[in-house]
Design brief:
By secondary structure, this protein is mainly beta. Helix content is 13%, strand content 45%. The protein is globular and about 75 Å long.
Length: 404
Amino acid sequence: MNQKRKYRHFILFCLVLDLLAVVFLGYRYLDRKIPDEIHIDRNSGLDFSSLSGIPFVSFGDTITVSGEGSYQLPCTLLGKIHFKDIKVTPTEADSILVSGSSVGIYMETSGVLVIDTGEILSSDGQIQDPAKNLLKPGDYIVALNQQKISCKQDLIDDLKDLDGSAVTVSIRRENSLVPVSLTPVQDSSGKYKLGIWVRDDTQGIGTLTFVTENGKFGALGHGISDVDTGNLLSIKGGKLYCAQILGVQKGAKGKPGELSGLIRYRNDNVIGTINSNIENGIYGNFTGNFGSDSQQSIALRKMKIGYKQELQVGPASILCNVGDGVKEYDAKITRIDMNHEDSNKSFVIQVTDPELIDTTGGIVQGMSGSPVLQNGKVVGAITHVFVQDAASGYGIFIENMLDT
């Protein structure tokens, strides 16, 4: 009898666990499908047609939109259980200038980024690591003995004056300034070193997503992180350049492809100044021109913004340049996540255009920021490619890119 009772208790325990798992996963599913906040066109009112297919969910009475304030729209399960209140913010249905042009990116860090510490073979033949456990990857050196450090060359010049005495290195770590005392080590060549690997700039190719009517631009759809530390780069500024795509390394399963291009780092090739590098992209002031007579020719077309609740699983298109100018290619949105914790992974898009698949395999590095269009509106931008499926990747809602 005891064995049977234990067995029944075990079965009951498993059933309870299964029930809790179903409830938790169901909650997560609905929370991801139903947005916490939406923007709507003040002149059109609420439209929840894209959410009407979610099971067991109903919304409160339609709210007549007027005035400038936001509203709360109740969402219930089975018509009785309160699930959440959706914040509704009325806005004007803005238009932006949508691009898809390839651009060159050059950014300077705010201070000198520490990549790692390293060992030094000292003049007496010993192995020493003077910065170990004192400096960490991701730190930014901003001063040496109270002398400001703006770039790597500043640091190199100051290191020439070291004589073996302890120095104070001022670093910025997680938005806090921290003084660190280091004792330089004289290497076998007689030079004094601190045993650190540093970097002070980054460059590459991406895609310009949009330019606003007041001359602000957004690109990439995700921030630029250091390849060694994985941390989002803290920058003091940068420039945006016209870029020429020369070739494509085709993507395949397990091997992301890449756009190869030429960037001429000349003043007459600058089309913008970069002011910020944040999670949703890089931003700044657009200074270039567009049109066939301009050497700084950038493709731009005026389009209305499509808010996230307007997205639908189904046909879409993307704008990108893979070597022969900006073209529109067929794609489809396969999944939409209204509340993903990572805003630049809000929906999944798959390239279906045979021409683009033949050229690139789908989505490749350098296409980040390519605008995503659906139903005549710009609804987002490509941000990532799936390593195991080169034809598919993530995207960011255009309203998230604009909310900076």
